[in-house]
Backbone:
């Protein structure tokens, strides 16, 4: 004769392993690295934008990054230095201090003077407009 199947009782089915121990693993967080991000004042006369707005700065600072903004960088975009400092950015009058950052964020391509302020292994987030660049610009 065949094997008699035992009916499944749903309350037993859902509580069957609830008192058994489970393997527990501890979450080990990775050491987070914070970046220093610099936002220089744009020097091209027709450029009225700023690379980071206060809302974006607030988000980046929330993730533990340090933002350094050159004084007056957002005035043409209707953002005062007060807006940036309230968002958590550090305001500086020193252009050299901004260019010491690990990451630079710009709207316009860097000028030759700005390239001279940059250091090796620095990250630049900016358009370059390669078709109009001269060889000496790229060799800097």
Residues:
């Amino acid at each position: 004769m065949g094997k008699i199947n035992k009916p499944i009782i749903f309350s037993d089915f859902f509580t069957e392993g609830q008192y058994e121990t489970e393997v527990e693993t501890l979450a080990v967080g990775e050491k987070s690295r914070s970046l220093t991000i610099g936002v220089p004042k744009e020097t091209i006369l027709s450029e009225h934008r700023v690379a980071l707005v206060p809302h974006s700065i607030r988000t980046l600072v929330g993730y533990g990054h340090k933002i350094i903004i050159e004084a007056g960088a957002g005035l043409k975009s209707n953002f005062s230095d007060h807006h940036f400092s309230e968002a958590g950015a550090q305001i500086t009058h020193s252009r050299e201090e901004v260019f010491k950052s690990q990451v630079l964020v710009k709207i316009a391509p860097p000028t030759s003077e700005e390239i001279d302020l940059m250091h090796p292994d620095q990250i630049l987030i900016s358009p370059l407009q390669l078709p109009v660049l001269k060889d000496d610009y790229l060799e800097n």
Summary: The chain has one domain: 36-139. Helices lie at 10-15, 54-62, 81-86, 95-98, 112-117, 135-139.
